[in-house]
Give the backbone structure.
Amino acid sequence: MERLFLTTAIDYANARPHLGHAYEKVLTDALARFARRRGEDVRFLSGLDEHGQKVQQSAGKAGKSPQEFVDDISVHFLGLWRDLRVEPDDYLRTTEVRHKKLVQEVLSLLYEKGDIIRGTFQGFYSVRAEQFLTEKERLPDGSWPEIYGEVVELTEENYFFKLSKYQDWLRELF
């Protein structure tokens, strides 16, 4: 029997959970329960993303270190899942040792295979949305929509994954 993997987005730990967080988790939990009742082998995964600029900013505003902040916030997320009876098979926090270890192993392997390269990226970054924007998102007058908040031009040294190396395999797969 094949295993059914269900996963949710991992939520940012920059604030307490809200209805949007609950909606996705309750639906995924219901799907997992339904599949199990049909006899399927299900693995339901969820978690919390405890890294990023918003987490750092929220921690600073609270007068805490990022780790102290996410430790406090995670209690609220886990409490909500308990109250809603959402029961993932595994709940991963990105600050956990097991997560860090696996990420380091995978990235090291990819780097050794030449699948990760270093390069420069330049673009316009929305601090609020935590994403880079494209020219298509600009308004006709050259400004950015208010929804993006502060937009700054950044030039960064980054590591890139050579997805093109796998494009034929991916096309065949999908």
